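=== RUN LOG ===
request id: a7f3
mode: sequence -> structure
chains: 1
length: 149
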Amino acid sequence: MRILLASSTGGHLGQLDALRPWWSEHERHWITFDKPDARSMLVGEEITWAYHPTTRNIPNLIRNFGVAWKALRRFRPEVVVSTGAAVAVPVFYLARLMGIRTVYVEVYDRIDTATLTGRLCRPVSDLFLVQWDEQLKLYPNATLIGQLL
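=== RESULT ===
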């Protein structure tokens, strides 16, 4: 299977790394930020660098639509998987337009309120996963998978 994994760096990337036993068996490509943790964690991986910061930065959001468009067209994944944050939004919306399946994993550290990225990506997610029972109240009909970390 061809998988595109998209996330911000830090904890978001760490949660995707926790899925390594699964994704390491497949052909994959990454979209993330060019930061030291990403460079060290993803040695030997195919990576497209996204623009950051993304929080309240409309120019970088627009640039990241271009980054996502090029990566999706070049790699042609069968599925996109993300744990957020904002870099997931352009990737998920373009994947939906291109007929590519999407899987969103809500982060483990937000159990009282829904994340902005989760709220934005849920409408275009084929599968929406949560890590805590409490998150099911925020995202009815999500699938509980338990903690990744």
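=== NOTES ===
Strands lie at 2-7, 27-33, 47-50, 79-84, 101-105, 127-130, 143-144.
The CA atoms of residues 106 and 130 lie 5 Å apart.
=== END ===
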